[in-house]
Amino acid sequence: MGYPRKLTRRFRAFDNFAISFTIINIISGIFSSFGFGLNAGGPRILIFGWIGVSVMVLFIGAAMGEIASAYPTSGALYFSAGKLAKKHKGAWSWYTGWLNFVGQVGGTAATGYAAATFIQAFLAMQWPSYDVTGQRTVLITAVILVFQALANTYTVQLVALMNRISVWWLLAGMVVIVTCLTVVPSHHQSASFVTHFANNTGFTNGLYGAMLGLLVTSWTFTGFDGSFHMSEETVQATVNAPRGIVRAIGYSAVTGLILMLALVYAIRDYDRAASASAPPVQVLIDALGTGTAKLLLLIVIGAMLFCGLANMTSNTRQIFAFSRDGAMPGSHWWHSVSPRTRTPVKAVWLAAACSLVLVIPGWWSHTAFTAIVSVNVVGLFLAYGVPIYLRLRLDDFQPGPWHLGRYGRLVGAVAVVWIVFSNVLFMLPHSSPITPRTFNYAPVALGVVLLVATVWWFATARRRFQGPVSYGRPDEVAAMDLI
User: Fold this and answer.
1) Is residue 385 part of a domain?
2) What is the domain range of residue 429?
3) CATH number of the domain within which 123 lies
């Protein structure tokens, strides 16, 4: 790919799969967005929407996997955009890289913020006198980010080990939660409850409310580009990275559906659960009692912490690669690698600092989490869509060992259409009446990112950034390898 090696290849096939599976994180995603789904479509959209959207995301993952096989680098999306563009390579690469950067930072911040929120929910259950505040949420998030940065500072073997543990934590946790929700309650909803529809969004159009409910699954299925970003540290990356992406999505779709069914059928009082401050926690309390609910909540919190750790790892590799091509302020700092651990330590702490900056508004505003999630999802899915779209425009695309054959263009076209449709949904109002608390900040977040990127591009970047850099011929690059 034109770069000297700085990072060691210690990720095996399972490790590569594990990072995307951990970032998708069905427990974290479902528990964070379940309440929104109860009010935007109810069980009908939670279940059937999960199935439909999972299939669409699998199209995106397969199309991305084909590109990952052809361009297995840490730069991933922005690198492949620069290589696939017919012209204006620097501009395509620039915008994709910044969308990916902001989306990654938003993902790390949102996951940490969600974990802090559920930690406070647990503390309030354990000690009723505990006062849940936005200030404490921000402080707990800061502590979480520091510990995740420390874990990422050390060797990549530690990160790989933590991701392996996280896979089994997620699977075992899912089994425990599903088993408890299936066996313990004396009463479950009837089989027909899966068709129950609810529209508490404030909008009178039921179809609109149902479409908003599809976002529950889209919120969950983000971050599977992590396998792509870890390519330079994965053995046989041209095969293992795309397999990691597709397997992570497929396994998450199946296990997530099982968890979603268990939660839906365990609902006792629908209205009370839908209006609760933490709806899935209310479902656990109603079905299992406070004691068991607290134990299961610890599983959820652990899953969120693992998710944030993997998010930061992926975020760091994108920063490392983007800086290596000179696209970030202080690039010479952020793509340096520790000679002892062979990890981009400075990039790790930049990722943690940027994530904390996104979280700080939560000190004053309760809408901060919605804004952070908007930054995460919109930034990432647009970054996913750009290289897939450019691959469709390229007549002489050279696939890697893992490819879709004659179905590549069809799969890519479906992926682009779904990305456009789902991003439009993310931009629309999500509840009515529209107030500062219910306002959808996704368009604002996207507008700010694109405005800053555009001003920066025309001011200075277009003269110094021409897309991915090549350090020379393969033999020259090999001679520069630092490992």
Assistant:
1) yes
2) 13-461
3) 1.20.1740.10
Residue 4 belongs to some domain of the structure: no
- Would 189 be classed as within a structural domain? yes
Predicted pLDDT at 223 = 86
Span 176-200, pLDDT tens digits: 999 999 999 988 999 999 999 999 9
Tokens matching residue 325 = 């091509």
- Those residues with Cβ within 8 angstroms of residue 82's Cβ, 6 or more apart along the chain or in another chain: 89, 90, 92, 93, 96, 467, 468
Q: Tell which wins on pLDDT, 121 or 438.
A: 121
pTM: 0.90
Q: Please give the distance of CA 284 from its chain centroid, rounded to a whole number.
A: 25
pLDDT tens per residue, range 95-111: 999 998 888 888 888 88
